[in-house]
Automatic annotation (TrEMBL), chain A:
Keyword Transcription: no
UniProt record similarity statement: Belongs to the bacterial solute-binding protein 1 family.
Keyword Secreted: no
Pfam families reported in the protein's UniProt record: SBP_bac_8
Superkingdom as given in the UniProt entry: Bacteria
Source organism (scientific name): Actinacidiphila acididurans
PANTHER family: MALTOSE-BINDING PERIPLASMIC PROTEIN, MALTOSE_MALTODEXTRIN-BINDING PERIPLASMIC PROTEIN
Keywords, in A-Z order: Signal, Transport
Gene3D superfamilies for this protein: Periplasmic binding protein-like II (3.40.190.10)
SUPFAM superfamilies: Periplasmic binding protein-like II
Protein name, as recorded: Sugar ABC transporter substrate-binding protein
From TrEMBL, chain B:
Biological classification of the source: Bacteria, Bacillati, Actinomycetota, Actinomycetes, Kitasatosporales
Location in the cell: Cell membrane
Source species: Actinacidiphila acididurans
Region of interest called Disordered, as start-end residue ranges on this chain: 1-22
Family to which the UniProt record says this protein belongs: Belongs to the binding-protein-dependent transport system permease family.
Protein name: Carbohydrate ABC transporter permease
InterPro entries for this protein: BP-dep_ABC_trans_perm (IPR050901), MetI-like (IPR000515), MetI-like_sf (IPR035906)
Residue ranges of every copy of the ABC transmembrane type-1 domain listed in the record: 85-276
Pfam family, one: BPD_transp_1
Coiled coil: none
Automatic annotation (TrEMBL), chain C:
Protein name stated in the entry: Sugar ABC transporter permease
Residue ranges occupied by any ABC transmembrane type-1 domain in the UniProt entry: 89-303
Organism: Actinacidiphila acididurans
Keyword hit for Membrane: yes
SUPFAM superfamilies named in the record: MetI-like
Topology of this chain in the membrane: Multi-pass membrane protein
Length: 419, 290, 315
């Protein structure tokens, strides 16, 4: 956290003093066994991301190496658990030691952009032509583009083809169909439907396609249009078509239930594809999440990480970082990356190619094409709205509040916090 | 600790044993009860191993018994997590050393010297336990950046020592307050100053309490996640609690491998526990009871 | 301990060597100073910063610019108006008292039990500490699975022995989730309590028990009249340390329920986290953190009061 007296910005006048300090602490460093990263290596770019998972880390490194090599650069990743990226980045910011590239969750971008700590990407030469509307919106704050996503994800309805066929249930397209299908598919230990309603970002992500499709507005929760979505979730559980454990199930738990044959349909994202593909017992397919009424449309959310360039004060390094980011986002690299991590490329042309190569995942690709960014309307206010929405569906699902009351209370808590 | 005039605690009484005179049958019943208690309390651990032995099965589909036990997870973890285990060991042992070096003299001073402000210091020590870890980590990080202690073993060791320090001061203080004064007095008469008397007599007499504090500090440091995460920006110093995340992604976690890591990471600490057990038993309250 | 303080006071010689006095004073402080300096750096400084922060408008921007304008009592007012605060306080109280009572009673029972001499006693004592070695992120996921209402082992077992006829909603029912969190925390805390209390039992001299037996005291009477009073100092240490680590609990609840369902497991610890790291309002988060410290300060005062005799000679 900041302490300007102790960590002066490296203005030219102070740089000599800083160097002196570095020299004097070298002895200390020797004692401390390992190195001081005091002066950045000009040939190495640094990245902070959430790719702790070995496979994802290695995949990332491959692309970084490929693009870094074009400019004679090495790229070093620092990966921390996804829930820790924001606090880690803020701490680094306070000590002026932020990495050259900062990869944030899209929903965290406005909070960072609002600090003026990020560089706008277009002036640095990052090509934004052909990016999908959702990707542009997710990477922008107040009309300026700060973060580019190589690929994005959304949510769709994944269903067990065998169970649906056996019960002669067609894939539901409307909420009414969803309710009756889920009911008919429920038998014994198998629920018709599974979703995640945890009180965190993931639970809210799952709620959004229903909330938005019913006309809900995250900036005006108390217009009560989202109540229908709350009712839908509530009915699924009170019908017994979905487990009341949804309030504690993570998206991975939901997938586990599906793979164990305990759920006939689930809401989930393309990141589950490797797990779904790794087994042969359950046959599955992807469909669009049902719309409220026949002929209506579904509004899924867009999710994923965006690469940003923090204002580190090193113009030359920022320029290099921009070049590497640009390289990562060529059409070819986007398609390759999307296939590596089962996400959908953000350049429209790349997405089309991806869709052609992976027909089974078309449901996800279609969702992304129309998906909407969580922060488009409320910007940096999203974290507060997210907490309020989570409180709303949790209290409805556990029966402690009616949908209308929960939404009014949610808006009240957003208003109170933003005072 | 070198040769000392008194090398064992003078309170060498035989501790009371509840059922020394119990019959064989009663002992057998007790043993059976003990097994039952163990089974219930350790079931979650069994479950961890069970999951680790069934790679490729989702958590919801894990069998109660690993019928087709697959050691793949353990092999994978052993191959890739060795250096992190070593780091954890080094950091935890370092933290124990720092913690004891600070806590032992302080506890003695607080127990014996009747310094002004003793109450305040003890009060402060109790309060320190309450400062949320996140707050400490954030503040320590900003100081560490200035001191160039980020990404160093020394930095992490110093920080981890804080996990056991208040506990050690409280425990050692109550232990040392109860040491028989006559023995220490005798050393003064022999011309030793307070410091040498402390080194030669108090420390050896407090051996069990020191081991207890060391053990707990080791366990606190071994399981630290927050400091390791906060005070490192590279992979240079990566204890096992962090490297475990190599099996946990933003969306999908490989619980089998995580459980295998947790089980393997528990082994060195478990060995230490078993070895230290007899000292711990004797060292917790020490002479506090008379 | 109660007897040792007066004894040692009586035994302190009339300042053995007057000529050594200046050195001694310097040396005496030398014993305490390093730890005090260390604690000031690692606890005092963060604490002061946290209190300051609670009066500042502290946002993500602050991390970049370093400036956090003072906002007077703004954060405090916002937090005190937050309807979650009252709930969180109550949950924290229930959680702390419930956890401590459970950990302590079971820990003590096990300590007494394993104090006997029988096959496996030593081994069992060591092995029972194992739960302590499991990282929280792992043990909480294991417990989440064990307590799962549909597939969890706990419900399966309860239904098999007909203790429950329908699945218990351990984690998804707002009226049970806090209890479940307490149960898991008890499981985590048993080893610590058992080890320390067992150590205390070991120190009770055999003669005392023999005397009690001669007086014809039964096992329960012996426990109440001999064991408990003799164990008092150790019990105090265990409870104080237990209180301090339980009241600020965060990671367990975060991993188990995330504060839900419907905020039924929201505690002061999770509230701080939510305000600071989800809403990114670090000033308000600091208010709750400061409240936590203040509560424990009150507790610490009571502790010192209760043990006044011990400190009597030391002022």
């Amino acid at each position: 956290m900041p302490n300007p007296r102790h960590t002066p910005r490296p203005t030219p006048g102070r740089r000599r003093a800083a160097l002196l300090a570095v020299a004097s602490t070298l002895t200390l460093c020797a004692v401390a066994l390992t190195g001081c990263a005091a002066s950045p290596d000009p040939h190495t770019l640094t990245v902070l991301n959430s790719a702790t998972d070995t496979a994802e880390h290695a995949q990332n490194q491959k692309f970084f190496d490929r693009c870094g090599a074009e400019y004679g650069l090495k790229v070093r990743q620092t990966s921390v658990p996804a829930t820790q990226v924001v606090s880690k980045a803020l701490r680094m910011a306070s000590s002026h030691s932020l990495t050259d590239i900062l990869e944030l969750d899209g929903s965290d971008l406005p909070a960072f952009a609002a600090t003026s700590g990020l560089e706008p990407l277009k002036p640095l030469g990052v090509d934004t032509a052909g990016l999908s509307r959702g990707a542009l919106s997710m990477g922008s704050f107040q009309g300026t583009f700060y973060g580019i996503a190589r690929s994005v994800n959304s949510l769709a309805l994944v269903y067990n083809t065998d169970l649906l066929a056996r019960a002669r249930v067609p894939v539901p397209r409307t909420w009414d169909e969803l309710l009756s299908a889920a009911k008919r598919l429920t038998s014994g230990k198998t629920y018709g439907m599974a979703f995640s309603a945890t009180p965190d970002a993931d639970g809210v992500y799952q709620f959004l396609p229903f909330f938005w499709s019913s006309g809900g507005d995250e900036a005006h929760l108390n217009d009560l249009k989202g109540a229908a979505a709350l009712n839908l979730w509530k009915t699924l559980i009170s019908d017994g078509s979905a487990s009341s454990a949804a309030v504690t199930w993570t998206q991975q738990d939901v997938n586990d239930q599906f793979l164990a044959g305990r759920a006939a349909m689930m809401v989930n994202g393309p990141w589950q594809v490797p797990a779904l593909d790794a087994q042969t017992k359950i046959h599955w397919a992807v469909a669009t999440i049902p719309a409220p009424t026949a002929g209506g449309s579904t509004q899924p959310p867009i999710g994923g990480t965006v690469m940003t360039i923090p204002r580190t004060g090193h113009r030359d390094r920022q320029a290099l970082a921009a070049k590497v980011i640009d390289c990562l986002n060529t059409e070819r690299n986007q398609v390759a990356w999307g296939e590596a991590v089962n996400n959908i490329p953000t350049r429209t042309a790349a997405a089309a190619e991806y869709r052609k190569d992976n027909p089974k995942l078309a449901g996800f690709a279609d969702a992304v094409a129309t998906a909407r960014s969580r922060t488009a309307l409320v910007g940096a206010g999203w974290p507060g709205v997210q907490t309020a929405l989570a409180q709303a569906f949790q209290s409805v699902l556990t029966g402690s509040a009616a949908p209308e009351r929960a939404l009014r209370r949610a808006q009240a808590s957003v208003d109170a916090a933003s005072k | 600790m070198s040769a000392t005039p008194v090398n064992r605690t003078p309170r060498g009484r035989t501790p009371y044993r509840g059922a020394t005179s119990g019959s064989g049958a009663r002992r057998a019943v007790r043993t059976a009860a003990a097994v039952l208690v163990l089974a219930v309390l350790l079931f979650p651990l069994y479950w961890m191993i069970d999951i680790a032995l069934q790679p490729g099965t989702g958590l919801a589909a894990t069998d109660w018994f690993p019928v087709h036990a697959d050691w793949g997870n353990f092999r994978r973890v052993l191959d890739s997590q060795g250096s992190s285990l070593l780091t954890s060991l080094l950091v935890a042992l370092g933290a124990v050393a720092v913690c004891l070096a600070l806590a032992a003299p302080a506890a003695y001073g607080l127990a014996r010297f009747r310094l002004p402000g003793t109450r305040t210091i003890v009060f402060g020590t109790l309060i320190t336990q309450m400062v949320p870890g996140m707050v400490i980590a954030n503040a320590v990080y900003s100081s560490y950046v200035d001191l160039h202690l980020v990404n160093t073993y020394l930095g992490l060791i110093l920080a981890d020592a804080s996990l056991g320090l208040p506990f050690s001061v409280v425990l050692l203080r109550s232990f040392m307050a109860a040491l028989p004064h006559e023995v220490i007095e005798a050393a003064w008469v022999d011309g030793a100053n307070r410091f040498t008397a402390f080194l030669r007599i108090v420390l050896p007499m407090s051996r069990n309490a020191l081991i207890t504090c060391g053990l707990f500090t080791f366990l606190f440091a071994w399981s630290d996640f927050l400091f390791a995460l906060t005070l490192n920006t590279t992979d240079d110093v990566k204890p096992i609690t962090l490297s475990m995340y190599e099996y946990m992604g933003a969306h999908v976690d490989d619980w089998g491998a995580v459980m295998a890591t947790a089980v393997l990471a528990a082994v060195p600490a478990a060995v230490l526990l078993v070895v230290a057990q007899k000292y711990v038993a004797a060292g917790v309250s020490g002479g506090a009871l008379k | 301990m109660t007897t040792s303080a007066p004894t040692s006071t009586a035994l302190v010689p009339p300042r053995p060597a007057v000529r050594r006095r200046p050195t001694a004073a310097w040396l005496r402080w030398g014993f305490v100073a390093p730890a005090v300096v260390y604690m000031a750096a690692f606890f005092g400084y963060p604490l002061v910063r946290n209190v300051l922060m609670s009066f500042q408008h502290y946002t993500p921007k602050t991390f970049f610019t370093g400036s956090a304008p003072f906002s007077g009592l703004g954060n405090w007012r916002a937090v005190l108006d937050n309807p979650l605060l009252g709930q969180a306080l109550w949950h924290t109280l229930v959680f702390t008292v419930g956890s401590l009572a459970g950990q302590f009673c079971i820990g003590l029972a096990l300590a007494v039990f394993f104090n006997g001499r029988f096959r496996l006693a030593g081994f069992a004592r060591a092995v029972l500490l194992l739960p302590w070695l499991v990282p929280m992120v792992v043990s909480s996921v294991v417990w989440r699975k064990l307590l799962d209402q549909d597939t969890g082992v706990v419900n399966t077992a309860l239904q098999d022995v007909h203790l429950a006829h329908s699945p218990v909603h351990w984690l998804s029912s707002p009226s049970l989730a806090l209890l479940s969190a307490i149960l898991v925390n008890i499981w985590i805390g048993i080893p610590f309590n058992m080890v320390i209390l067992y150590g205390g039992l070991q120190e009770i001299p055999r003669e005392v028990y023999e005397a009690a037996a001669l007086d014809g005291a039964g096992p329960w009477q012996t426990f109440r009249r001999v064991t408990l009073p003799m164990l008092r100092p150790v019990i105090t240490v265990v409870l104080v340390l237990g209180f301090m680590s339980t009241i600020k609990i965060l990671d367990l609840i975060l991993a188990l329920t995330g504060g839900g369902p419907a905020d039924s497991t929201q505690t002061l610890g999770t509230l701080t986290y939510q305000l600071s790291f989800q809403s990114l309002d670090f000033g308000q988060g600091a208010v709750v953190g400061t409240l936590l410290v203040a509560i424990s300060a009150v507790f610490a005062v009571f502790y010192l009061r209760a043990n006044r005799a011990e400190f009597a000679g030391e002022q």
